[in-house]
Design a protein that fits this description.
6-stranded mixed β-sheet, 9 helices, 14 strands, elongated, alpha/beta, 17% strand
């Protein structure tokens, strides 16, 4: 019964908030015909009602059968709510103006005047425009930005690069998050873009799924088509361990992780679990170190870099696959000065920001010191991939999905 009372209270607050926002719409509609006002009013409250009912029934919808519907409901609800919150700020300013005018009317010099307590048409229009902008932007980010894959190319020139590997081209993708996808054709198009670059090596730096291995099944054959003459190598991200959902038993969780490992192998990806591979060209060598997830702070630390590193001591150029970029400053730089290139992902660039030329901004920068693109400290490099997929919000605004191509050159 307490749940019923709680939902009734939430519904009451939701309706009251909707009516408050509606005040701006009513002012703007004042010159419209009666029929138009009635239609817009019905549409406004009908959309709110449908979204509220949808979010209320979210937990009753089967996560597997209705995965896309659940994603649509939550996304539509929160994008709309964001727009309404922004509109409410303008209406609140208008209410502040009206309150000030009402109080000022009691001053002796103003007592004979009739105050104008009507709502400002300018602020009402501003409220609707301001509320519509985020709804339009984030909707466009779903329709267009989610799968607007970009190939980003960069070059690392170093005396550490063995001469036999001069000119080698590395491809990196990260954070696929198959559990969030809703457009298989677009996902396959991104893979085609990667293969068209004809890289010598391909690396995947974690987060194939959101919560469990079953999410990847519909996409395995798409990613299986990724090929490279020197191999495709992968590792695990924080979402790949099933830590963000409940399991019937620890054994069930471990079985799911093992199944995910087998999926990597089915796709032809050499999954590295705190281990390494050494590639030889003539008399020259290059080492690939695949670390399980290791993140600073609250994120899981399954990785064992000492174990991963062992056996590569004499290899002149080492590439570390480690999902979380916070690992670079926390352990790689201070303890392993001969790890030349660290490839990471994890941040997604928060799937929101601005990139114009060399200017780059995202809220992600306030959480991660290294959140996108290339970073350098002495002879060590870190590249943070912006991610191939998306999580939570099923789109991207400004920070677009990425396929990275890195060319190694001997200086």
């Amino acid at each position: 019964m307490s749940r019923i009372y709680f939902m009734a209270l939430v519904a009451l607050v939701y309706v009251a908030f909707d009516i408050y926002i509606f005040q701006a719409l009513r002012v703007v509609m004042s010159d419209y015909s009666v029929v138009t006002r009635r239609v817009l009013t019905i549409v406004y409250f009908a959309i709110s009602a449908v979204l509220f009912v949808g979010i209320s029934m979210y937990n009753q919808l089967d996560p597997k059968q209705f995965a896309n519907l659940r994603l649509f409901i939550t996304t539509a609800f929160f994008i709309t709510l964001l727009g309404k919150l922004i509109s409410a700020l303008f209406i609140f300013v208008d209410d502040g103006r009206r309150l000030f005018t009402w109080i000022a009317n009691f001053l002796p010099s103003k007592a004979e005047e009739t105050p104008d307590l009507s709502r400002s048409e300018f602020l009402s229009k501003s409220a609707l425009i301001a509320g519509t902008v985020p709804i339009a932007v984030f909707s466009f980010g779903i329709v267009s930005g989610a799968h607007d894959y970009r190939v980003r190319k960069t070059v690392i020139t170093s005396s550490k690069v063995p001469k036999a590997f001069h000119g080698i081209r590395l491809a990196q993708i990260s954070d696929i998050h198959t559990g969030s996808f809703f457009n298989k054709t677009a996902v396959a198009g991104g893979v085609d873009m990667l293969n068209a670059e004809k890289p010598d090596l391909v690396f995947f730096t974690g987060d194939l799924v959101n919560n469990q291995s079953d999410e990847a099944k519909p996409y395995l054959d798409i990613f299986k088509s990724i090929t490279a003459p020197l191999g495709v190598y992968s590792t695990m991200g924080n979402h790949d361990y099933g830590d963000y959902r409940s399991w019937t038993s620890p054994e069930a969780k471990q079985a799911d992780i093992k199944q995910l490992h087998e999926m990597h192998r089915y796709m032809g990806w050499d999954i590295l679990l705190n281990e390494n591979r050494i590639i030889t060209q003539g008399s020259d060598q290059l080492a690939i170190l695949g670390l399980e997830n290791w993140g600073a702070g609250r994120f899981s630390k399954y990785g064992d870099l000492a174990k991963t590193y062992k056996g590569t001591e004499e290899v002149p150029f080492k590439i570390l696959l480690s999902h979380d970029p916070s690992h670079w400053e926390a352990q790689v730089l201070p303890e392993y000065p001969d790890i030349n290139l660290h490839l990471a992902g994890h941040t997604h660039g928060m799937q929101f920001g601005i990139e114009i030329g060399d200017f780059r901004w995202s809220p992600s920068k306030y959480i991660y010191k290294q959140w996108a693109d290339m970073y350098q400290s002495g002879n060590q490099y870190l590249y943070v991939n912006r991610g191939y997929g998306y999580l939570g919000y099923p789109g991207r605004v400004g920070i677009l999905p990425e396929v990275t191509i890195i060319e190694l050159r001997n200086s």
